[in-house]
Specification:
The chain is an alpha/beta fold. Helix content is 38%, strand content 14%. Helix 5 packs parallel to helix 11.
Length: 297
């Protein structure tokens, strides 16, 4: 969002997850995670996160000395998900160490309109409102074009969008809305609400015709590896999506897990995966990967 508004030079610190655009990777890292997720399985990550959150412990560390050296006038953070970013407790402790208190801008979106409102708010506090309104208008126009192209489809495919696969987590917040605009139907998704655990029996009963694997915190390569694991799980092989080779791993970090301007690209990508005959994908060719059962290779 900051870079989209032309604030790259004014952005003096980022989190360990900030990797887009490329210039974001050159910024000092103020926030790091406490869990060694690189060496953990998905089930271990889920269990560790649940345990730490349940005990009131933090998942992230703020480099207070670096933050003091930066001396920011504004801090951009969120209060939507304890798993995804520093909570209010870490921010409060970090602010206590600063001689001059910056303005903290909290983002807590639950739908696409909230994301646009966040862009508008950031534009207002940084003097870039004109650019923010232009981004919002262009984004809404693109979403309207997607909706128009998919409105007349003969039928909407049944979709299951998984934000985690061990255990299974359904689509939440803005993602079900993206699926609707793209011409799909996900009965297991929770529109405007948190993603929650679902059972394999729920997925089997819904019998999705398209299966999207979008593990939060991962890019397309890791998503494809996890999708291959998923296809070996009991009950998955007989799903219509698997039989018809309509299983796709997508880049969650780029298009779905992060509430910013690229959710528009993510909606266009879903529309292409659901209705390739109607919607062309002109974005990154590596944004998704079709994953087949080994026997189909």
């Amino acid at each position: 969002m900051a870079f989209a508004l032309g604030l790259g030079e004014r952005l003096l610190g980022v989190s360990h997850e900030c990797d887009f655009p490329a210039a974001a990777r050159t910024k000092p890292v103020v926030v790091t995670r406490t869990l060694p997720v690189e060496s953990m399985s998905l089930a271990e990550i889920d269990a560790a996160v649940a345990a730490r959150v349940g005990e009131g412990e933090s998942l992230y560390e703020v480099d207070e000395r670096l933050l003091e050296r930066i001396a920011p006038t504004h801090i951009l953070t969120q209060a939507l998900c304890q798993v995804c970013a520093p909570s209010g407790n870490e921010i409060t402790r970090a602010l206590a160490a600063l001689p001059v208190k910056p303005e903290v801008v909290w983002f807590t979106p639950s739908c696409l309109e909230d994301i646009f409102a966040n862009i508008r708010e950031l534009g207002a506090v940084t003097g870039t409102s004109e650019r923010a309104e232009r981004i919002i208008a262009e984004s809404k126009a693109r979403l309207a074009r997607v909706a128009e192209r998919t409105r007349g489809v003969a039928r909407r495919p049944r979709v299951t969008f998984l934000e985690w696969i061990d255990p299974y987590f359904c689509a939440g917040h803005w993602v079900p809305e993206m699926i609707e605009l793209a011409g799909g139907e996900d009965a297991l998704g929770r529109k405007g609400a948190d993603s929650v655990r679902i059972a394999i029996d729920d997925i089997v009963r819904w019998a999705p015709e398209v299966l999207i694997v979008s593990p939060c915190g991962f890019g397309v390569d890791a998503a494809a590896e996890q999708t291959a694991q998923l296809l070996r799980q009991p009950g998955i092989a007989d799903l219509p999506a698997v039989r018809d080779d309509r299983v796709f791993a997508v880049n969650a970090d780029a298009y779905y897990a992060r509430p910013g301007p690229r959710v528009v690209d993510g909606t266009e990508l879903l529309a292409h995966l659901f209705h390739p005959e109607r919607v062309e994908w002109r974005g990154d060719a590596g944004a998704f990967r079709q994953v087949r059962q080994p026997a189909h290779r």
